[in-house]
Amino acid sequence: MKHDRYAVFGNPVAHSLSPRIHAAFAAQAEQDMTYEAIHAPRDGFAAFLRRFVAEDGRGANVTVPFKEEAFRLCDILTPRARDAGAVNTLSLEEGVIQGDNTDGVGLVHDIEHNLGWSLQGKRILLIGAGGAARGVLPPLLGQRPARLMLTNRTPEKAEILAEEFVRATDSPLTTGALESLSESFDIVINATSASLANAPIPLPNRVFAPDSLAYDIMYGRHTPFLEQAGKAGASVLSDGLGMLVEQAAESFYIWRGLRPVTRPVLETLRAEYR
Ligand code: ATR
């Protein structure tokens, strides 16, 4: 019998944890499926995806740098893909490509279910105004924080992004300039790519309220952002490994209609990254 075929497309993609995560979910839920990593050339994603569709692929994840291109290639988009302007999950049926984005919900699930922090009523600082920040902004707003301040090294970009999502006069969403932030926050989320370059962010220490949560969406490294947060009084420091597992769980649910139990998968990976 033929297995249902899934894949993650990226460049680079060799070190992606997604094949391991989905293999664990499939074993747990007794699903007859395969999941592979496909390295597409930077100018060849569309062609690689078309081939995968023609070969009966059932679904795919999309990672850097193809999420925006995937968005443009979809025949149907979910509202959260539309909000994000990028797609990380493709469902393929009879040649029709449907795109969704599970990154934001993955972050929310990790913070709420794994770390046990409710977002409702909290003061949240979100740093970044690129693709990653855009993807997580609407789901964070959906949890009804008391405040959500968006800040970015280039402040104009944060303002442009925020304008799209301020839908009511009493919106909790505001913007502020990174270096002159004067308030403190319960939850500070780094959605910039600074950590990739191991670069610190010019952030005043006062943004971290005593006992706050500092979350870096990058995983596998104690970043300069988390280092600063720890010294400035944040009591919980988290990288984005849980977000990675949770966004995968949401993709798995879209494809298979089953919610995997994420904790053992996260614990196994966490033990390796400690
Ligand atoms: P991604 O898809 O990862 O969000 P992106 O769209 O290129 O990537 O956006 C990168 C984000 O990280 C931007 O918000 C960028 O700030 P600018 O808009 O000012 O460029 C932010 N960023 C990258 N390096 C940074 C650094 N060293 N300090 C602060 N912010 C940084």
Summarize the structure in words.
It is a single chain. This protein is an alpha/beta fold and 274 residues long. It is built from 10 helices and 12 strands. It has helices spanning 18-28, 45-54, 67-73, 79-84, 103-114, 131-142, 155-165, 224-232, 241-256, 263-273; strands at residues 4-10, 33-39, 59-62, 76-77, 89-93, 96-100, 123-127, 147-152, 173-177, 185-190, 208-216, 236-238. The strands form 2 sheets. Strands 2-1-3-5-6-4 form a 6-stranded mixed beta sheet, sandwiched between helices. The chain has a 6-stranded parallel beta sheet with strand order 9-8-7-10-11-12, with helices on both faces. Helix 1 (18-28) links the parallel strand 1 (4-10) and strand 2. The chain is globular. The N and C termini lie far apart (40 Å). The structure holds 2'-monophosphoadenosine-5'-diphosphate (ATR). 2'-monophosphoadenosine-5'-diphosphate binds at residues 128-133, 152-154, 157, 192-194, 199, 201.
What labels describe this entry?
Rossmann fold; 23% strand; binds 2'-monophosphoadenosine-5'-diphosphate; 2 domains; 12 strands; 274 residues
Structural class: alpha/beta
Shape: globular
- The order of strands across the largest sheet is 2-1-3-5-6-4
**CATH hierarchy: architecture of the largest domain:** 3-Layer(aba) Sandwich
Give a short account of the largest sheet.
Answer: 6 strands, mixed
Uncertain runs are: none
Order of helices and strands: EHEHEHEHEEHEHEHEEEHEHH
SSE topology sketch:
Blueprint: E1 4-10, H1 18-28, E2 33-39, H2 45-54, E3 59-62, H3 67-73, E4 76-77, H4 79-84, E5 89-93, E6 96-100, H5 103-114, E7 123-127, H6 131-142, E8 147-152, H7 155-165, E9 173-177, E10 185-190, E11 208-216, H8 224-232, E12 236-238, H9 241-256, H10 263-273
Helix pairs in contact: 1-9, 5-6, 5-9
Residues 128-133, 152-154, 157, 192-194, 199, 201 line the site of 2'-monophosphoadenosine-5'-diphosphate.
